[in-house]
Amino acid sequence: MNPLTEIKFKVPFDQVGAAHVEPAVDELLADANLSVQAAVADPNPLHAIDIMTERLDFALGVIRHVESVATTPAFRAAFNAVQPKASAFYSSIPLNEGLWKALKNYAATEEGRSLKGSYHRFLTKTIDTFKRHGADLDAAGKARLKEIDVALSEATTKFAEHVLDATNAWELVVTDEAPLKGLPPSAIAMARAAAESKGVAGWRFTLQGPSYTAVMTYLDDARVREQVWRAYNTRAASGPHDNRGLLVKILQLRNEKAKLLGFRDFSDLVLDDRMAHTGERAQNFLRDLREKTEKRFREENQELETFAGKKLEPWDIGYWAEKQRAALYDFDEEVLRPYFPLDRVVSGMFEIFGRILGIRVTEVKDMPAWDPAVKTFEVRDAASDAHLGSFYTDWYPRENKRGGAWMDSLITGDPGHGRPHLGLICGNLTPPVNGKPALLTHREAETIFHEFGHLLHHLLSRVEVRSLAGTSVAWDFVELPSQIMENWCWEREALDLLARHWETGEHIPNDLFEKMKRAKTFRAANAQMRQLGFGFVDLALHREWDGKEDPVVFARRMLQPFAAAPIPEDYAMITGFTHLFSSPVGYGAGYYSYKWAEVLDADAFTRFRKEGVFSEAVGRDYRDKILARGDSQDPAELYRSFMGRDPDPQALLERAGLVG
Ligand SMILES: [Zn+2]
Q: 27, 200, 357, 460: least CB-packed within 10 angstroms?
């Protein structure tokens, strides 16, 4: 028996091995192909389409998860062997002509035309997806679309390689100690280790994140900072890893693809099924925030120059900002750790959201797991005791586990009919050491809340169409349920439930709490303008660039108003901007969604603020109107049904300290 071929609620993680992966995926791919045939032959194909990949999804979900948290060389090899087959199968679905005919025929029937609710949305969305994959194009159009997709995939892969190679090709080796002045011991040790790893004497600095950030933040010698800053911001802009030509090519291909499919530009194509819907709306959203941020932005820059006592260059900003922060707030995040023992944070979180959302979370011991550090829980409805779902938590780093924090779903159930959901949350948080419990930073506590929010979006879902359930929502909406949770980590009453000194049991002292809050809004306008600038340049390149001007010059001009100091002529951050250009879509035309989601979470939280951060009435409303709904309705409608109006950026501006 292969443990991957049947959907089992108690996933046999203790039995899954590398040898099961390929046979299971081959069998399930064959099975899914038969299900596709059955859907094609079905006069009402919607339900068949909805479930045709269910068993394959489950197996691939388990495989992907084991690869993320408990991999071995054999398992990784098996995982890599099935990936191309699986992705080829999934990308063939919206190109399947039989399915397209079945969908169109059904949509034209009396029944298809009079569909309501989530099946209506599922039909419309599926048809739109097929269209965006070229289902309505003639043979020549389909052939061209295929060429564009291949060319885009090649160009974006090359773009990413160039950034990586250009980053790795640069180094600065220092052989005497004088230029190191200002760096903290940890950064000096890191530079020393980087030199040793290359067999060179002295200290070696690179353009990798930790090295670059340490230099920009702490190194006293402005000439060294300038050298590193210039290298970083001209990566992949010349020489053997030059991305200029690729940038033009990617933008042109994306534009051609959008036009071929009947859209004004690439942003309208990408945003068609997102909450913003059009590039124009996303641009207006950013413009509005920019206007509301600029005044404070100019003040912050003035304050920083006054503090530094001189005009600042771009490579001075991070350095002087750190000096100013240290002068204004004598606050070190590390002093908070004793107040955040992990088990207390987690149980406090269950208590808070148990109350607010009307659920009960209890640990269970009868679920096999992939590692002894994993814990398992079930979630029940507090009123009816119905089993809504179960989940795994896996919080500490291990060598066989990937980095970061994430949530994933394994089974999308139907709790109303006795089939609970199954999901998981993972992190790489500070582990327990020296007989002490795991003591977290405040940011790590926020991370737990964030991932639990994604998990609740899945576990509390009540959507009849499986494909529209849980977190399968628009990209610019999916972070609302996660980010909103972080707000509770800043509310005194909530914080007192999860933050207690692990030895004394004391709450966080008030003066410390006040310092935390003040430090949070330090240079918030600069942080916001930086994100807005990236969003602006992204949408402008995909909507307004004329196809002729050097996009590096265009991007530089767009970004200048968002920078705290004048940027030099050769500034070319855009040739290193992998977010936008390292995959066919990626964050292309979607960078705005970071701010969009922040506006949503800050604004939605105002209902709790006004009616009580523990308000059960608001909590139930939030559960019914947002968490339970998945993608069964347009997210803008879901939002309005909860808030009674459209999103308002005011709450974000207040939270960031940008308005009175
Ligand atoms: Zn998230």
A: 200
Selection from 541, 527, 502, 506 nearest residue 279 by Cα:
541
Active site (annotated) includes residue 147: no
pLDDT band at 329 (very low <50, low <70, confident <90, very high): confident
Half-sphere exposure of 518 (CA within 13 A, CB side): 13
Of 414, 411, 370, 421, the closest CA to residue 393 belongs to 370
What's the whole-model pTM score?
0.93
Cα(353) to centroid(ligand 1), Å: 18
pLDDT, residue 258, reads 98
CA of 177 to the centre of ligand 1 (A): 42
Number of other CB atoms surrounding residue 142 within 10 Å: 17
Q: List CB contacts of 537: < 8 A, sequence separation 6 or more.
A: 555, 558, 559, 574
Q: Please give the distance of CA 126 from its chain centroid, rounded to a whole number.
A: 24
Tell how far the Cα of 72 is from the centroid of ligand 1, in angstroms.
27
Q: Which of 444, 446, 451, 486 is catalytic?
A: 451
What proportion of the chain, given as a percentage, has pLDDT over 70? 100
Q: How far is the CA of 480 from the centre of ligand 1 (A)?
A: 8
- Alpha-carbon distance of 72 to 55, in angstroms, equals 24
For residue 406, how far is its CA from the centre of ligand 1 (angstroms)? 7
Q: What is the pLDDT of residue 435?
A: 87
Q: How far apart are CA 505 and CA 499, in angstroms?
A: 9
* Amino acid 102: pLDDT: 97
618 neighbors 612 (Cβ within 8 angstroms): yes
Q: Would you state the structure tokens that stand for residue 648, as one six-digit string?
A: 């308002």
